Amino acid sequence: MGHFRQNITDRQASVLAHYVGVLGFDEKKMHYFQSEEFLEDKGSAIDIVIFEPTDDFKYYLITTVGLSSYKTNENFAPVEIFMLLPPSWKTDFERAEYVWPVIFLRDIAYFIAKNNVGVFPPQIYSVGEDKYLKGTDSIGGVLVFPEMTTLDLIEEKIEDRYTRFFQIVPINKDDKAKIDDVGLGNFIEFDLHDAEGPVFVVREPQIKKGVTALDKIIAQNEKGLKGK
């Protein structure tokens, strides 16, 4: 995992060039996850790439590379989908809490390709049950317009058709229940936005930390100081 595919298609190369050209990513600072699965009667794999943050774009961007090879519906443009990871995300892809977005995004992409689903926001995708992947409680994603990027990212003419680039925001079981209760539109408007704008970045890994002896000493000292 994480090694560049030597023989990418022209379309895959164009998808990567679009991200590099629009958001200024460094081609030498990307992690390429090659898919070994080729869907039946199709000519391209759906790979996953993670671009590292830059001075101008502060987030990791993880994207499909090859989903747009699959013509999902006559009435919809071909698409690639991506997620944003916080700048503190670690590239320790041997650990479940950091590698799960690769599997998660690929699962959604395979669902779209295999089921010929037309892709256009807003839309919700359910890909698993509660905690179906180690390292996350995400069970699906909400498809949205990429509000935290430039509008130039959304569309690019590749080969003979325009390809669109949309964002996936992971959701957990509680989020899905709320969507069922209030509706997808209200969830996006009120839960994915706050006073400072959209909240579309993947949550930080939830890592439980043990209490060390030093923690206990500090807590005891703080308790003593409060009594004075």
Comma- or semicolon-separated keywords:
228 residues, 5 helices, globular, eight-stranded mixed beta sheet, 10 strands, alpha+beta, 23% strand
List the helices and strands and how they pair.
Layout lengths: L9 H14 L6 E4 L13 E5 L8 E6 L13 E7 L10 H19 L8 E4 L11 E7 L10 E4 L2 E12 H10 L1 H8 L1 E2 L2 E2 L14 H14 L2
Parallel strand pairs: 4-8
Antiparallel strand pairs: 1-2, 2-3, 3-4, 5-6, 6-8, 7-8, 9-10
Helix pairs in contact: 3-4
Shape: globular
The count of helical stretches stands at 5
Average pLDDT, all residues = 82
Element-level helix/strand string: HEEEEHEEEEHHEEH
Helix percentage range:
25-40%
Descriptive overview:
The protein is α+β, with helices and mostly antiparallel strands. It is 29% helix and 23% strand. The protein has helices at residues 10-23, 96-114, 173-182, 184-191, 213-226, and strands at 30-33, 47-51, 60-65, 79-85, 123-126, 138-144, 155-158, 161-172, 193-194, 197-198. Strands 1, 2, 3, 4, 5, 6, 7 and 8 form an 8-stranded mixed sheet that branches. The chain has a two-stranded antiparallel sheet with strand order 9-10. A hairpin with a 2-residue loop joins strand 9 (193-194) and strand 10 (197-198). It is globular. The N and C termini lie far apart (56 Å). The mean pLDDT is 82.
